[in-house]
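Fold this: Glucose-6-phosphate 1-dehydrogenase
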Amino acid sequence: MAISDFDLVLFGGTGDLSMRKLLPALYARDRAKDLPAEGRIICIGRDNKSDEDFIAIVEKDSKPHISAASMDADVWQRFCKRLRYVSVNAKEAGSFQNLVKALRDDPQLTRVFYLATPPSLFASICENLANAGLATANSRVVLEKPLGRDLASARDINKQVGRHFSESQIFRIDHYLGKEAVQNLLALRFGNVLFEPLWRREWISDVQITIAEELGAGGRVDYYDTAGALRDMLQNHLLQLLCIVAMEPPVTNSADAVRDEKLKVLRSLKRFTPTTLAMNVVRGQYRAGHVNGVAVPGYRKEEDANPESHTETFVAVKAEIDTWRWAGVPFYLRTGKRMADSLAEIVVRFKSVPHSIFAQQNNSTLPNCLVIRLQPDEGLHMNLMAKTPGDGMRLRPVELEMDFREKFKTPRMEAYERLLLDVLRGHLTLFMRSDELEAAWEWVEPILEHWEQQETDPIPYNAGTWGPAAASALIGRDGLQWREEALPEV
């Protein structure tokens, strides 16, 4: 679908997200000729700068995030001609007249206001846009996370933004939903008949969803200490991935049909009680250790960190979904910083064969697993049992693998590239609806309240490991293991 002419306004246009992700993504789509020739990108900051001064900053801070293979001097010059800089103070209504003057007065023009700012500014920006006459029918607003700190603040954001923009104009972004592997999970589930009869409690033992980072919180301690792993990763990214795995087939792939099914999953998650919380939630914080052979400090020793911080850098949760399809199937969610590896993956583990006919040959069969790898390299892996060559019937695990880069030679589209295109096209499928956001907060809020009431320290774990031993015990009580623990020795 072709994109119509637009003015894309980036609040926080000089910030880290804009420089590292948004502008490189827009350059990539310009290079792919997806953007109309007249489309403009207006970057907002508080300081007074000329367009030339701002482009010099983009050259220094954003251009290095574009790969050398993708850099084309002619395209870069064309892209820079799209850029404008406008000085606006988000809290001062009068300064929005600078933006009014910079925008084109065309009722047919698509206007996108991307709020790459702290959520504390969402309400004032939207109110000032409305007072300046810019919250019109052809406008869209994009909200970056964190979308609140709890249910009350999330509802307040929805209320404040909803005063000036309708739900169909609000794009709550979760960049994990733009990843190629997540799109392929939808294709795998709903474009093939093979897995649907097996995608249920009768055949699936458990589901594991992991987002692990080798990096620590250094450089982001000010933000991270007010958020923690649960707010930063689990409430949004992990729960959205769970919804994609567990949702019922939607009637169509339209935005509301898909989001209706995701909402049903969130509302079907079994609620925690104080007793089940103690058994099914693990909170950890990394201490000093080694990552890839390099010594790294503990969280409380990071620069500018609070030496008595109770912020969790790791969280593992056992979730259950009370539906006919998933009753009794545990979903294990895990995320952490300073882990043994950087990866994001979904592991769907099927049940063991009901009876092994190979027992007399001293064979042990492992359950089949479907692994959807989101990063660092995106792909699908299916673990099966197969006979080893030679005399006798000896089995060993083998892996059927599809690497998206190898299979499809066309250039891969990064998550923010896809999501920005969908915003410009007005496609809402990959964006959270207000009731989804609130349902997710309703489920995680008892965890936050429990931690606040207990006032206990997170469990320490060494940097460079897979988190606290309690996370292994969490899944071990069900007779299971995290995938990296269950991999056979070669």
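The chain has two domains: 6-144, 177-413+433-486. Residues 115 and 147 are 11 Å apart (CA to CA).
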